């Protein structure tokens, strides 16, 4: 559905190795298929939050696990990148399946801020959005051949923890003078 966004149900069935009748029994329309996949994505991504122990593991370890968990499901992330639309948030069936996802991420970053691990000059909600943006952009860039698969998790982790400054402390090569 990512590589051939206009594929028919018959073409999609062939791509995944099932008959059109089998796919049709699963979902009668493309919209139903997208809805089911969005709901499945939500279940998998919420399980990634749980498996990362965001409420109990040390924040840096939990962040590393969270990034790795999300990258383990790159195909679902790519599906979300290409199928999440602004009006998706108006669809109660989809949004109900995602309930709690953002709040859990926000709570994790807030805990990390309180423990002095994450910076406090950026809100927890903004850190959540930045994490999602970093992960999705890395998945998309790798899919398009812009970056190598190797080391994506480390790049995402370093970006979240240290940003793009050469020296976050402001030493030589760090913040510009003036």
UniProtKB/TrEMBL annotation:
GO terms for molecular function: DNA-binding transcription factor activity; transcription cis-regulatory region binding. This is HTH tetR-type domain-containing protein. The keyword Nucleus does not apply. SUPFAM superfamilies: Homeodomain-like, Tetracyclin repressor-like, C-terminal domain. Gene3D superfamilies: Tetracycline Repressor, domain 2. Residues 7-36 form the HTH tetR-type domain. The keyword Repressor does not apply. Keywords: DNA-binding, Transcription, Transcription regulation. InterPro entries: Homeodomain-like_sf, HTH-type_TetR-like_transc_reg, HTH_TetR, Tet_transcr_reg_TetR-rel_C_sf. It comes from the Bacteria. It comes from Achromobacter arsenitoxydans SY8.
């Amino acid at each position: 559905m990512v590589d051939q966004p206009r594929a028919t149900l018959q073409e999609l069935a062939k791509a995944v190795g099932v008959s059109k009748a089998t796919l049709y029994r699963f979902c009668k329309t493309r919209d139903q298929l997208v809805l089911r996949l969005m709901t499945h994505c939500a279940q998998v991504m919420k399980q990634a939050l749980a498996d990362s122990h965001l409420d109990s593991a040390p924040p840096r370890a939990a962040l590393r696990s969270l990034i790795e968990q999300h990258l383990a499901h790159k195909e679902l992330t790519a599906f979300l990148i290409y199928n999440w639309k602004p009006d998706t948030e108006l669809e109660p069936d989809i949004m109900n399946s995602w309930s709690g996802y953002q709040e859990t991420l926000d709570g994790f970053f807030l805990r990390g801020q309180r423990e002095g691990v994450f910076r406090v000059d950026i809100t927890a909600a903004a850190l959540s959005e930045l994490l999602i943006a970093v992960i999705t952009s890395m998945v998309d860039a790798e899919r398009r051949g812009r970056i190598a698969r190797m080391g994506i998790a480390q790049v995402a982790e370093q970006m979240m923890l240290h940003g793009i400054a050469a020296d976050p402390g402001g030493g030589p090569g760090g913040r510009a003078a003036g």
